[in-house]
Design goal:
alpha/beta, D-Maltodextrin-Binding Protein, domain 2, 4-stranded mixed β-sheet, two-stranded antiparallel sheet, 6% strand
Length: 447
Amino acid sequence: MNKISLIIKREYLSRVKKKTFVVMTILGPLLMASLFVVPFLIQNLGDEEKTIDVVDETRMFIGKFEDSEDITFNYLDQSIEEAKKNFEARGNDALLYIPETKLSVPEKAIIYSDKQPGINVKSSISNVMENEIEGMKLQASGIDKEMLKSIKTDVNLTTMKLKEGGSEEKTFTEVSMGVGFVLALIIYFFIFMFGAQVMRGVIEEKTNRIVEVIVSSVKPFQLMMGKIVGVAMVGLTQVLLWVVLTLSIVSVVQVAFPDTFSMDQGKGQMETTSQLIGSQSSKVQEKMAQVEESDMGNKVMEIIGSINFASIIGSFIFFFLGGYLLYAALFAAIGGAVDNETDTQQFMLPITVPLIFAIIAAQVVVQNPNGSLSFWLSIIPFTSPVIMMIRIPFGVPYFDLILSAVLLILGFLATTWLAGKIYRTGILMYGSKVDYKTLLKWVRYGS
């Protein structure tokens, strides 16, 4: 055990002192923080006021296009030919032409511009015209538009989880889905990242013949376990630093630019998103205007309070370590069996397929986290680290959680035993091409 701890210490210190570790530890939080910061900065950079000339031959939309913070409408009392002729001299951004139609209401309009107009401009214009035309049609049919609005009803559907003893707990399905997906993707990427580090480390020591010196003092199995655990500790250190540094960077930027990350700015982004998907109706705008910052803050706190951070963080650490140890043993076996990374491709496919399948199946699991497919994928050791992290935010029965944990531990022990048989034979083999038949011989030879 003392020899394994020495190998763990060697692997840990040698990797955290590398320039690549330091660079990625700094670069990773910057990239993750930018995912939050950049959208707000882009929103501010994109807030350029645009002026649009309007030539309405139908006279139906005069005064209907209301100015906003981003768009100003300028109504022209002239022909479209004259407006196009003087467009460049006026220096405005676009020219909206609504031609006269033989029908009772217009069905088309044209935007003239020397540059491609933004999607928010097109959405604003089309939404106003659609609302006005719908109102005209309703009036022509003898239907009161206000009466029709009063009939429409929005249903606020709240989900409550009944717990043992009759107690209730408010849940948020969308939040659970988001948390599950993020944690599952983190486990997926880190298993690949650090598992590949184990494999490359073994190949490097094997090709440099350093391993011949090392195995003269320790057993091959001890060397494999020390390398796997050492890299796992490096991974946990880096993940912890990423979380702390990312939160620190985001907090510093929020304090430095409070106006940019204000609640009003967030609402502005929501309104822009609504425009892009064509849902900027007057009723939605009225409701959004009624939302107070205090209500928004209470909503956020309610969502945060619904997340069981202790359970999620504890489960994440366990399934991250369990999944990593299971796959890292196989990656180590592959590294010990081959002489260079090129030869690893034929053995990587069977290992990576279960992880890739788990990510693909996650889209089905999130729709029915308690279904039979979700259950089986969450207890099979090769897919459970990813699938179980998707299920946990929704609430998982203790039986499923314990069964998944036990099978993951047994799976790790089984893959470690199998990898150890291959590793201790292949680590000293040089120059020979290895196939699955050879690996099977090594397993039998070690038995």
